[in-house]
Design a protein that fits this description.
80% of the residues lie in helices and 1% in strands. The chain is mainly alpha-helical and 314 residues long. It has one domain.
Length: 314
């Protein structure tokens, strides 16, 4: 790849970021709300794939880390500045991830997946029990923040998440994560500190989940455990990463953006058939596009090459 190609790509990216920054000046309020949802799911998806993509450890605890960020915002939102609250949301989620990593990342396969989903449900029911028995009420009011502020904060979190993911992916740590996914025993034998690397990268990804939960909580005037720890926040990042292409950052972004827009469209146009159509589309993509949407280009090339060979043989 030439330097001119790299320069053009970087220039295009900077122009795109500037355009995103200018959108609130000209877009309708509904567009800002929709983009906030897209940014949220992109961050959740890329953060999930940061660890789970290369290692093949399928975590279903995203809802736990996202929900903790939401509750941090609800508890501290009226006591601390917004950016401090967001930082606390990410930090507390990372601390939980460190504890989870120390206790569970020795598990593998479906055992790790079941453990992480159980953890998310345990936290949800524990918070519910605490509110019912200790505070005497279920749910909390959240300090509201205007959609434009949420938009710019989410855009900043999104860009930082993408930069951190790119740096990790193209560093020696990214190669080490890939080796863990291929053969954890072999990675351990060649000198990689497997457990430490898994725990650290797992915690890094969850920081962005918690920070996203803290800022997105301000969009809702009221939250409770069923809202904050909704299991959809655990399953959707996995589906979105698979849908777009779990092995590439662009695929993860594309999958999250397309599925979020598709969900909004189906929910608006066909509310009674929304989940059915959504599920059918996901099944079709998973069955016929195992590499996700980013693999579609390669599939088309192979199909055209086959058509060309048939034509030349006739």
């Amino acid at each position: 790849m030439t330097h001119s190609t790299n320069f053009l790509r970087l220039l295009s990216l900077l122009i795109f970021i500037v355009l995103l920054a200018l959108i609130p000046r000209y877009a309708q309020p509904y567009t800002i709300i929709s983009l906030n949802s897209i940014f949220m799911y992109i961050v959740l998806t890329v953060s999930w794939a940061m660890f789970s993509g290369p290692t093949h450890y399928i975590s279903l605890a995203s809802a736990a880390f996202f929900g903790l960020g939401i509750y941090v915002s609800a508890i501290l939102g009226d006591k601390l500045p917004l950016l401090v609250v967001i930082g606390f949301g990410g930090l507390i989620s990372s601390l939980l991830a460190l504890l989870v990593g120390l206790s569970s990342l020795r598990l593998r396969g479906m055992y790790f997946t079941i453990f992480t989903f159980g953890l998310s449900e345990l936290i949800r029911h524990s918070v519910l029990w605490w509110e019912v028995n200790e505070t005497g009420t279920v749910g909390r009011w959240v300090i509201a923040v205007d959609n434009t502020t949420v938009y710019y904060v989410m855009l900043a979190i999104l860009l930082i998440t993408l930069v951190v993911t790119y740096i990790i992916k193209h560093s020696k740590y990214g190669l080490a994560l890939l080796s863990i996914g291929e053969s954890e025993e072999a990675a351990d034998h060649i000198g990689i500190n497997v457990n430490a690397l898994k725990i650290i990268i797992f915690a890094v990804g969850t920081f962005f989940m918690g920070a996203t939960g803290a800022i997105m909580a301000t969009r809702w005037s009221y939250i409770d455990p069923s809202i904050a720890f909704n299991p959809l926040f655990s399953f959707m990042p996995v589906l979105m990463a698979i849908f777009g292409g779990v092995g590439q950052i662009f695929g993860q972004v594309l999958g999250a953006a397309v599925l979020t827009l598709l969900a909004d469209l189906l929910l608006t146009k066909l509310p009674y058939y929304y989940m059915l159509l959504y599920g059918v589309i996901l099944i079709i993509v998973i069955l016929f596009l195992p590499k996700g949407l980013v693999g579609l280009k390669e599939e088309v090339k192979l199909w055209l090459r086959g058509m060309k060979q048939r034509y030349e043989n006739t």
